[in-house]
TrEMBL record:
GO terms for biological process: centrosome cycle; spindle assembly. GO terms for cellular component: HAUS complex. This is HAUS augmin-like complex subunit 4. It comes from Aldrovandia affinis. One of its GO terms (molecular function) is microtubule minus-end binding. It comes from the Eukaryota. It holds the Pfam family HAUS4.
Amino acid sequence: MSVGPNSLTCVPPLGQGDEEHRQVLASFLLCQLTEEDLTQNPLFCRLLGSLSQHVDHTGLTLPLRRELEKAEQELQLQRLGWLRSEGLFQALQEMIQEHFVRKYHSSTTAENEEFYETLEQCLLVAQAVRQLDPSPTVGQDQLPFLGLSAQNILDRMPSGQDVQRMKQRLLTALSGHLKKKCFTILTYYQPDWENESDPLKSLKLSRLPEILQSESRKAESLGEKSKESAALLQRHMHCYLSELLGCIQIIQSLILDHRIKAQKELDVKRVEYLDAKCQIVTRKIRLEILELQMDTYTTEKIAAHRRIRNELDGELSAVRAEKRSVESALSSFEILGRDFEALVEQYSRLLQEIDNKSWAVKEFSQHAA
């Protein structure tokens, strides 16, 4: 079911004018509450109404909310301080890395080499001291790492004159590096400003935090409005679904009532249709069989089959007559009994001996010649 902006305006306001219901639903957006729940439980609705005066929309009490906001502010200050120091440290490291990259592409002066070497050494010492400095939550009696103390690391600092010269130049170099990074961020935010002059870029850069902050607030406002619209849409969807379920139930009851009356006629029509369809299919099958027989048995093939059948019938008659004669001879032989069998065996033996003698005479005649 699609819900468009025009259909939302047709929905009656939630609570049907009940201000208490709207207040409870607006105060507890995170809870899956519906107007139907509040209507069915009026005492629970009153309890939530009185409770909404002491808690916010997230469920926290007002004093706890103030303490939480204070803690978040302190955390924000601590985080801001850490981000400042960490950002400064990262910027100095980037300056050193860029110097080493430039050194491989072009020659540098001895003053630059001394400045960046002193800066790198100071950063390494500061980082090592920070790693060796124990946290307040760690016991002071803990053994130092590799037997080193912060003072041992501070002894590796460059000379005071080198550090002083490095500090005199550091502010200018760091300002230029940060200005370059700020211009990069500005052109990333608005690429059309890349070809403008540095004073104009500086002016726009000074207004960039306000622009980003206003856009952030606008995005947060749009996010809140989106959440409220989503909650409102969910409640409207619940109303629509309730109405839709009611309509579906009515339609189902109408369908059941009318289908029982029309079922008999529908069954009769269906049986008649299936019967007619069965007859058509049967006739079609019979037609296919006849067409297949006509294609298979032509006039010439039928005449040839008839001639073959006549010849086979004649041979079958001759075989049957021969069978009858053989059976009659066999029956006459069976009447003679065992004596005839002995004579047959003797006759066979004599025939075999005659054949043997004839073969011997023939062989003898060939060798004698």
